[in-house]
């Protein structure tokens, strides 16, 4: 933790002549962008894996017909198919999992009053008027929603809401087209899964809006990580999972993803 605190402090010192009191906040944004840049190859690999999984759908449909009355054999056959084709069903989770350590480091760094037995000086650094170690509740107690600190959070909420609305629209369009790993639920699903998959499909477009809750409850430094990473994800997914063009066959855009 001390090493990470020193890294953030040194980066902030380099940025201080340009950004003054908000140098540490900018350092966190740049740190987040660096993490996402390092994880980007995994995101591209996940897109290629998605293309491969879509290509396996006809074979999976045959397996579902063949083992419709035996879920255990179906699961085993699908696992063997994925192994044979060298396709990992979990590859899409790797980019998110690899980012968790960076987020938790920031969260704990700006949640602890002491680092290495000394007072945590980073807690006094600010984004404009808002201390990086404070939360939205602290901003509300200082001046309300439209106080100096509250306006910082309002700006972050506007960004997150804009990104969420963008993701919501794209997700709805891609679900309608049956692309990007969002196939429609059919009677060929594993018994007992149709209802749950249908519920997930209906809920999925709204998931981006839950980022607003995260921004409100975590320290401002961690909120900056969330906002930056969420915005990066929206742009990255737009590049890796393009929307189908008018008249294109379902899955056509997903087939191009990851190239």
Beta fraction: under 5%
Please give the largest β-sheet.
2 strands, antiparallel
Globally, the shape reads: elongated
Which radius of gyration do the C-alpha atoms yield?
A: 22 Å
Give the overall average pLDDT.
82
Q: What does it look like?
A:
The two termini are 38 Å apart. This protein has 259 residues and is mostly helical. The protein is 66% helix and 3% strand. Residues 180-200 and 249-259 have low confidence and may be disordered. Helix 3 (57-66) packs antiparallel against helix 4 (71-84). Strands 1-2 form a two-stranded antiparallel ribbon. It has helices at 2-19, 23-55, 57-66, 71-84, 94-109, 136-143, 148-177, 194-203, 211-217, 220-240, 252-256, and strands at residues 114-115, 118-119, 126-127, 130-131. The longest helix has 33 residues, at 23-55. Strand 3 (126-127) and strand 4 form a beta hairpin.
Index terms:
single chain, 259 residues, mainly alpha, 4 strands, 66% helix, elongated, disordered C terminus
How do the helices and strands line up, and which of them pair or pack?
Elements: H1 2-19, H2 23-55, H3 57-66, H4 71-84, H5 94-109, E1 114-115, E2 118-119, E3 126-127, E4 130-131, H6 136-143, H7 148-177, H8 194-203, H9 211-217, H10 220-240, H11 252-256
Helix pairs in contact: 1-2, 2-5, 2-10, 3-4, 5-10, 6-7, 7-9, 7-10, 9-10
What's this, in brief?
The chain has 11 helices and 4 strands; from the N terminus they run H-H-H-H-H-E-E-E-E-H-H-H-H-H-H.
